[in-house]
Design brief:
five-stranded antiparallel β-sheet; 2 domains; elongated; Alpha-Beta Plaits; 232 residues; 9 strands
């Protein structure tokens, strides 16, 4: 186990294939946050504290996983700033940024339905059909992921009590996760959307594209996708 200090808040740990075999653990355990993985993470943090003077974050940390073919994998730990601890003005600004991201996606992708074979209107038309004013806060979005592992990693990072609605589709070589605010607060829903951008890309923020996925794609999980992926 080789540990490297990147900066005051970040450390990297290299686990060889031999060590992974010795621990009887693999990439999937870290993605799904299994009990074995939690024990290894605890051991790594303790060793990092002793060897390189790493100070574990007070609140929480981000864990990034990178596979090294025929060698092993690298785990990167970095401190995560708690959303709940930010000042009120910062929270408001955070929500404004989230709204802008989704509204820009509506404008940019509003005509994509037509180019993909549908005869849908513009993004403003879609908003009107959905019964939403142009300036209304969007409460649904679709994110595209390159592989299922990225979706599972994102799902495992979400709180178990997050009350959003979610569905998973596959179309061509990509996986699409549909997120709707549901019973979650707008603050928690917005945070979930922003975190999704760490694992995938925003595909659309209008219902027209969901209809395209239902028509042309394969529905893998119709409802409670995040919960089912987190438990798989």
């Amino acid at each position: 186990m080789k540990i490297e200090r990147v900066d005051d808040k970040t450390v990297k740990c290299f686990l060889s294939n031999e060590e992974l075999e010795e621990y009887d653990i693999d990439y999937k355990d870290f993605v799904l946050r299994s009990e074995k993985a939690k024990e290894i993470v605890k051991e790594i943090i303790e060793q990092a504290t002793e060897e390189v003077g790493y100070k574990p974050p007070q609140f929480a940390f981000d864990l990034q996983i990178m596979m090294l073919p025929d060698q092993g994998l690298v785990l990167t730990f970095s401190e995560k700033e708690p959303f709940e601890g930010r000042e009120g003005e910062q929270i408001v600004e955070y929500l404004k940024q989230m709204r802008n991201v989704l509204m820009q996606a509506r404008e940019k992708l509003g005509t994509a339905a037509g180019s993909l074979g549908g005869e849908k209107g513009t993004s403003s038309d879609s908003a009107a059909q959905d019964g939403k004013a142009p300036g209304a806060r969007p409460d649904y979005a679709i994110f595209a992921f390159e592989d299922l592992g990225s979706v599972m990693e994102y799902a495992s990072a979400m709180p178990a009590n997050l009350r959003v609605q979610s569905s998973l589709y596959k179309w061509k070589d990509l996986f699409y996760l549909y997120l709707k605010k549901g019973g979650a607060s707008y603050e928690r829903y917005s945070r979930a959307c922003v975190q999704a951008l760490e694992f995938g890309e925003l595909y659309a923020a209008d219902e027209a594209h969901l209809l395209l996925l239902k028509e042309h794609g394969e529905c893998l999980i119709a409802e409670k996708a995040l919960k089912k992926l987190r438990l798989s």
